[in-house]
Amino acid sequence: MELIIIIISSVLINNYVLVQFLGICPFLGVSKKLSPAISMGIATTFVMTITAAVAWIINQYILIGLNLQFLEIGAFILVIAGLVQLVEMFIKKTSRPLYDALGIFLPLITTNCAILGLALLLVIKEYNFIESIVFGFGSGAGFTLALVIMAGVREELEMADVPAYFKGAPIALITASCIALAFMGFAGLI
Amino acid sequence: MVTRKFTLWKEFAKGLWDENPILRMLLGCCPTLAMTNSATNGFSMGIAVIFTLISSSTIISLMRNLIPKEVRIATYIIIISTFVTVVDRTMAAFLPDISKAMGPFIPLIVVNCIILGRAEAFASKNTVGRSAIDALGMGIGFTLTLTFLGSIRELIGAGTIFSVQIMPENFIPWAVMILPPGAFLMLGLIIGAVNWLNAQITKKAAH
Lengths: 190, 207
What we know:
The complex is a heterodimer of chains A (190) and B (207).
Chain A: H1 2-13, H2 24-29, H3 34-64, H4 72-94, H5 96-102, H6 105-108, H7 113-125, H8 129-157, H9 169-183
Helix pairs in contact in A: 1-8, 3-4, 3-7, 3-8, 4-5, 4-7, 8-9
Chain B: H1 2-13, H2 29-34, H3 39-62, H4 72-94, H5 96-102, H6 113-123, H7 128-158, E1 160-161, E2 164-165, H8 180-206
Antiparallel strand pairs in B: 1-2
Helix pairs in contact in B: 1-7, 3-4, 3-6, 3-7, 4-5, 4-6, 6-7
């Protein structure tokens, strides 16, 4: 039950992009077309789930174990950079089609603040190991959901007659505002 | 001497308008959206970024001939994360309320594209003085934008600026402006307005 609540809350209520403002760069950058948006979402969810597990272990046994919590920022960013590299090599070896589908998005995930944010939030929320993994997966799914909805809307927007000065980023942000407004409706769900 | 002074001024001023990190380059959007629910939060975030930006740009510029090209990004990130840790610990110690309000967004300065972007695009190729001036300009441009955005959202959403009551007593605040949708909407409108303003300036210059 606890786990289901974590999933619902991370996908809908505290949506990573629309409510917590993490991972805005890929949200605006990779949401022009639907299919890359889906690939990006899957790649991010994948890395987030693994990051949650690894970050929890690092935090529990190395940072807290050795009383080094003040090194948390540096430790997490190094772990994430290494992890993304590792995942990239692993996918390249085991599943070539998936690797080709993800393409450039995989290495770019390192600089996605959603991943580091996830590691930091895990520490703040004091989840246990299983909860952390579920939270990581849920957050990734929430990110994917927001990205896919946004890409769907923006594909339609291509046809719309947008005022010249609002083309590109401004109209994308205003669209995001409408989607965020819709997501506010989930606030009372739990 | 005159030209030198002039270029230094240009290095500083480009961060304020021509290459403003948020309004023109769309960098560092996460803290921009998340931390502008009040003028105070926006301003504190800006100050934290100015400090990190200047310190890391200076250090990276000093070490630019020592860092091997292959591992430069990792080196930059370690240097940046050192300064972010300094900011994070300092704020937690002296400004616990603001530090709490910002949640994970102070540590997240590490992955702020503005800082890594300036390191890669400017500090790694220029002298210490110019890098520091460039960082200062970019940081002030970032802070001004954040404070402006925060003030507008706070004014409409709560009727105050820096917690000082501005709107008349009977003004009903639009609470949505300090919630997430207001952040997206306001940033979109402001970037649109800046595009328009810039087009007017270019038009005038052409005449």
